[in-house]
Amino acid sequence: MANKILEIDDLTVSFDGFKALNNLTFSMNEGELRVIIGPNGAGKTTFLDVITGKVQPTQGKVRFKGKKLSGRSEHDIARLGIGRKFQTPRIYLNLTPRENLELCCNQNKNVLATLFKPTPKAERRTVGGLLETIGLDHKADKPAALLSHGEKQWLEIGMLVAQSPDLLLVDEPVAGLTDDETERTGQLLISLAESHSVIVIEHDMEFVRQIARQVTVLHEGSVLCEGTMDQVQNDPRVIEVYLGTETSITPEQMLLLRIAATMAWADGDFEAAEQDIILERLSRQFAQATDDQATLKTELKDLLAKKIPLEELVPQLQTPAQREQALMLSYEVIGANQINQAEASAYHKLVTLLDLPAETVSRLESATMAHGSNGAS
Ligand code: ADP
Ligand code: MG
Fold it and tell me: Considering every ligand atom, which ligand is closest to the CA of 40?
């Protein structure tokens, strides 16, 4: 059996009677990369605060590598091997990335010693290796102030890693980053997970999909569900807690909507008309959804993350009837506007994956067209 790096049992944190964490139970194996998601106020930050010793639990236990953490100071816990990356980088802007990293590899020395004493060879290799890992080797000797926001985040991740923690806690690492930086941050975390256990808290669903193997959803201070990204995204309770409305939507319906959304995203743009169709399908299931259609749409865009390969979604359809529904809905969604090249090829791929008889496909296509959508042929 794999070793547990973190075991949390029946954890409750009360703030003046309000339970930010409520009988939360959680565990993860050594070497795991775990993503934690959940709506605002779910308790994600408090969860990290308890692990790092910033907040003491009202009830329950946290064990790290088998050791109880209760009663230990933040400093002690950090020394046991837990490193936390905050949202705002805490780096020395007037030092270079190399100097920043050297400081972390030399915790017992002060800033001046680091600057003026030659670094021993073994250490330099470590710093060099880290610079390469975080992709900053080409900017190693320029002041950190000149780095982009993303590069500063990577430097801080590198500084954490320099302290060789066994468990890395990372709170919203891609907030404010460009798409390209986001993607590279994902690659960095995946490569760090080869030699560390990592917990990432994140809002950006597309990013979660890029890095996630195992996802834990928090809601009202407890674990709502846990599983792969597919399992979690097909779980109607997850949509429900994000939207804050009751639903009777089934996992099968959710899957259809996600296939349609993926088609809509095919050209990199989830247009308003396309959102309307999906929203209309979804809002039929949500009693109060019409109360705040605009919010619902934004949430929906994130929840139906855009880069879900059809190859992953389509095989989850169970029956021919569901495959036909997926085709109809997708055609309706992309047919809401002029169908462009990207959508046409996504549609072609969908048809191939669905593997429906050719007659069925043309029957459904003309039926959808007849319903008055203005799709081009
Ligand atoms: P998340 O990070 O998932 O958005 P938080 O852990 O920050 O959630 O907060 C969970 C709940 O606990 C929120 O309702 C928040 O208002 C409350 N909370 C967090 N910290 C405190 C505090 N120090 N005092 C009182 N309430 C708090
Ligand atoms: Mg938070």
Answer: 1
The span from the CA of 290 to the CA of 322, in Å, is 27
- CA-nearest of 162, 91, 92 to 127 is 162
Phi, psi of 96 (to 5 degrees): -85, 165
Displacement of CA 50 from its chain's centroid (Å): 21
In the chain, CATH 1.10.3680.10 sits at 248-376
Q: Is 187 helix (H, G, I), strand (E, B) or coil?
A: helix
Tally Cβ neighbours within 10 Å of residue 215: 24
Residues comprising the chain, all counted: 377
Cα 182–Cα 33–Cα 210 angle in degrees, nearest 5: 35
More confident: 372 or 349: 349
Encoded tokens for 341 = 């090249």
Whole-number Å distance, alpha carbon 40 to ligand 1 midpoint, is 9
Residues of the chain with CATH 3.40.50.300: 4-228
Ligand 1, residue 43: give the atom nearest the CA.
6
Tokens of 168: 């890395």
pTM of the model: 0.80
pLDDT digits (tens, 9 = 90+) for 95-140: 999 999 998 876 544 455 555 555 544 444 489 989 999 999 999 9
- The ligand 1 site (C-beta within 6 Å) comprises 15, 18, 20, 38, 40-46
Nearest to 149 by CA among 172, 175, 125, 187: 175
Q: Which two tokens stand for residue 262?
A: 């993926």
pLDDT higher than 50, residue 62: yes
What number does CATH give the domain 4-228? 3.40.50.300
Cβ atoms of residues 179 and 191 within 8 Å: no
Cα separation of 340 and 269, whole Å?
Answer: 11
CATH, domain range 248-376: 1.10.3680.10
